[in-house]
C-alpha cells in the first residue's frame, strides 16, 4: 500500500495524551503513560495521516492491519492491505527512544513484498502541561518484492511533535510538523517529491480523537478510536486528500493492538 501520507502505526497503537505528573513518575523506567483526566474519564489525542516524533514505550510490541481504497488512489483498483509488526525500545526522556517495525506490503501471497522501518525520538522540552519531541525515521529499509515489481524505496523524515493540555480541565491536543522524502504527490501525476507534512489532533471523548493532517498540496481528516474495555486495541478511520487535488483520494483504516512485554 502506498498511502498518500503514512500514519504512525506506533502512535495509533499507543493511545497518545498527556499528564506531566504521571510522565514524571515513570519516565526514568521507560514505562511512561501519557494520559489526561477529565470529568468523563481519560482522554487522548492523536493524529490520522501524519507521522509522530514519539516512539512507543520500551518493551511495547504492536501489530496492525491497514487497508486503503482504491489501491494507490487509482479509481477501480479496489482495496489494498498492509500489515506491520513493531517493537519499542529505549527512553526518549532520559536518552533516546526507538522503534523498529516489519512492514508487509504484499499480502497475496502473504509477505511477497515488504520492508523495515526505524524511528528514534527525544523529548526536548517538558513543562507542566506539555512535552515536545523531535524525531527522525527511515522507511523502505531492506525492501523486497516479487520479480517484475518495484520494491519500496528508502525514505527519511524528520519531525517535531508536541502533546499538551489546555484549560483547567486539561483538554488534550497534539500537533506535528515535519519534512520527508517522497511525502508529497506532484499534482495529479502520481509521482512523489520531498516536502513538508503536518497534523493536529484533539481529544473529543474518552475513546475518540479527531484530527486533520496534510502535505503541501492535500488535506486529510480522520478519527482515532480506543476500543472501550479492550486495552491496547485501537482503530483509525479517515480519508486522504479530501478535495482530491492530487487525483489520489483514498478511504483508509488501521486496526492496531499493542501490549507490554516482560516485567515492569
Evaluate the radius of gyration: 18 Å
Which range does the strand content fall in? over 45%
Q: Please tell me the total number of domains.
A: 1
Number of strands: 14
User: Describe the biggest sheet?
Assistant: 12 strands, antiparallel, barrel
Distance between the termini: 36 Å
Pairing-aware structural class of the strands and helices? mainly beta
| Element-by-element helix/strand order | HHEEEEEEEEEEEEEE
Outline type: globular
Strand arrangement within the widest β-sheet reads 3-4-5-6-7-8-9-10-11-12-13-14
Signal peptide: 1-24
Keywords: Signal
Give a brief outline of the structure.
The protein is mainly beta and 264 residues long. Helix content is 5%, strand content 52%.
Structure description:
This protein has about 260 residues and is mainly beta. It has one domain: monomeric porin ompg (Porin, Beta Barrel), CATH 2.40.160.40. Helices cover about 5% and strands about 50% of the residues. It is built from 2 helices and 14 strands; from the N terminus they run H-H-E-E-E-E-E-E-E-E-E-E-E-E-E-E. It has a 12-stranded antiparallel β-barrel with strand order 3-4-5-6-7-8-9-10-11-12-13-14. Strands 1-2 form a two-stranded antiparallel ribbon. The termini are far apart.
Q: Which key phrases capture this entry?
A:
264 residues, mainly beta, Porin, two-stranded antiparallel sheet, 2 helices, signal
Amino acid at each position: 500500500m502506498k498511502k498518500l501520507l503514512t500514519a504512525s502505526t506506533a502512535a495509533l497503537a499507543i493511545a497518545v495524551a498527556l499528564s506531566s505528573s504521571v510522565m514524571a513518575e515513570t519516565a526514568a523506567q521507560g514505562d511512561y503513560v501519557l494520559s489526561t483526566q477529565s470529568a468523563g474519564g481519560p482522554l487522548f489525542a492523536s493524529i490520522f495521516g501524519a507521522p509522530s516524533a514519539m516512539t512507543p514505550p520500551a518493551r511495547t510490541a504492536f501489530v496492525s492491519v491497514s487497508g486503503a481504497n482504491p489501491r494507490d488512489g487509482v479509481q477501480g483498483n479496489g482495496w489494498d492491505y498492509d500489515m506491520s509488526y513493531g517493537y519499542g525500545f529505549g527512553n526518549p526522556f532520559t536518552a533516546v527512544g526507538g522503534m523498529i517495525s516489519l512492514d508487509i506490503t504484499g499480502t497475496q501471497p502473504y509477505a511477497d513484498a515488504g520492508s523495515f522501518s526505524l524511528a528514534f525520538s527525544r523529548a526536548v522540552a517538558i513543562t507542566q502541561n506539555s512535552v515536545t519531541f523531535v524525531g527522525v525515521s527511515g522507511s523502505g529499509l531492506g525492501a523486497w518484492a516479487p520479480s517484475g515489481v518495484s520494491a519500496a524505496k528508502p525514505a527519511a523524515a524528520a519531525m517535531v511533535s508536541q502533546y499538551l493540555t489546555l484549560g483547567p480541565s486539561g483538554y488534550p491536543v497534539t500537533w506535528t510538523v515535519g519534512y520527508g522524502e517522497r511525502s508529497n504527490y506532484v499534482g495529479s501525476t502520481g509521482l512523489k517529491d520531498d516536502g513538508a507534512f503536518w497534523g493536529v489532533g484533539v481529544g473529543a471523548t474518552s475513546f475518540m480523537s479527531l484530527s486533520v493532517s496534510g502535505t503541501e498540496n492535500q488535506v486529510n481528516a480522520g478519527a482515532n478510536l480506543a476500543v472501550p474495555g479492550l486495552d491496547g486495541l485501537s482503530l483509525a478511520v479517515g480519508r486522504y486528500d479530501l478535495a482530491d487535488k492530487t487525483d489520489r483520494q483514498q478511504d483508509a483504516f488501521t486496526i492496531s493492538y499493542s501490549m507490554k512485554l516482560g516485567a515492569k
